[in-house]
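Comment thread on ticket #2218

A.B. wrote:
> Attaching the input chain for the structure job we discussed in standup.
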Amino acid sequence: MVDYLVPLLLFAACAAALHKKENAYDIMLGGAAEGLHLLRSILPALVLLLTAVSMLRQSGAVEAISRFLSPLFSFWGIPPETAILLLIRPISGSAALAVGADLMAEYGVDSTIGRTVAIMLGSTETTFYTISVYFAAAGIQKTRYCIPAALIADMTGFVLSALTARFLV
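C.D. wrote:
> Ran it. Output below, let me know if you need it in another format.
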């Protein structure tokens, strides 16, 4: 059934367009053009973030940060190997997914680190991106307590992710 999902969706879209007496091809072409425009606007930031993450990892900065934060992470039960994810996740979801995939490839998806990473990615948010988009859309200029509260919520998600991966799996 899953193999037929995309063709069924395309058929349903074409049938809906025909029912409304609209040109399905032009509508889908417009959607594809919007998708490419979105990709063109996101791609430079994604490449920059992935390059920065790769440079941090290759330079040894991630290991230094992990060692520096290791006592704090140990206190909260967070694996120190996830330090880069904790730093990247509030900034970029795409870069965090790439880091998460790297960690899972290195340590395995069934390892404590792999499970912790998966739970962290699902229970935290790209805080700065979300706040900037929502506040800009609403016309709010001053974030006041929103950013500290959101970062505390992210930290809570990170800590509880580590605890969940360690105790419930």
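A.B. wrote:
> Thanks. Noting for the ticket: The two ends are 31 Å apart (CA to CA).
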